[in-house]
Amino acid sequence: MRLWHESLISLLPRQQLLGQHRECCALRGKGWGKKHATVHYVFHYSPERLYRYHIKVINEMKKRGYKVDPLWKNPLYRGKQCTPYDNHSFHDMIDSKQAPEGPIYPEHDQTYLKECMENLYKKGIQISLIDIKKGHSD
């Protein structure tokens, strides 16, 4: 389980992008709070950050013509097996109506970007820093 560095989302091949959607769905659902070495940091924040990250993934999927269940666009939705969140679960940014500067997760820094790029490279996927600068749509 891994959340790719945000700047890689628009550059991920189909398999990794769709896998990222599944990971986000799992984390928003029954996976919330279950320890995992790679994604444990998401549980230090409001689930609203994961929702914002997931929306970036969903938007990229839609851009490529993939269909996404519209229920996932609801920030309180947690899948068919979980009770939805209440508004009080989202204490990071919904209350302030202002997104933070920089990445959704501070852990998505340059070191993490390099780690993700190396992980992709081991899978035979080469993404350069030039690609990231060109492909970064935000």
Summarize the structure.
The protein is an all-alpha fold.
Give the SSE string.
Answer: HHHH
Shape: globular
For the record, give the distance between the C-alpha atoms at the N and C termini, rounded to a whole number: 25 Å
What structural category do the secondary elements indicate?
mainly alpha
The strand count comes to 0
Most strands sheet: none
Which percent bin holds the helix content?
25-40%
Number of helices: 4
Strand content: under 5%
**What's the pLDDT, averaged over the residues?**
88
Q: Could you please describe the fold and organization of this structure?
A:
The protein is mainly α and 138 residues long. 38% of the residues lie in helices and 0% in strands. The protein is built from 4 helices and no strands. It has helices spanning 14-28, 47-63, 110-122, 129-135. Helix 1 (14-28) runs antiparallel to helix 2. The radius of gyration is 15 Å and the shape is globular. 25% of the residues are buried.
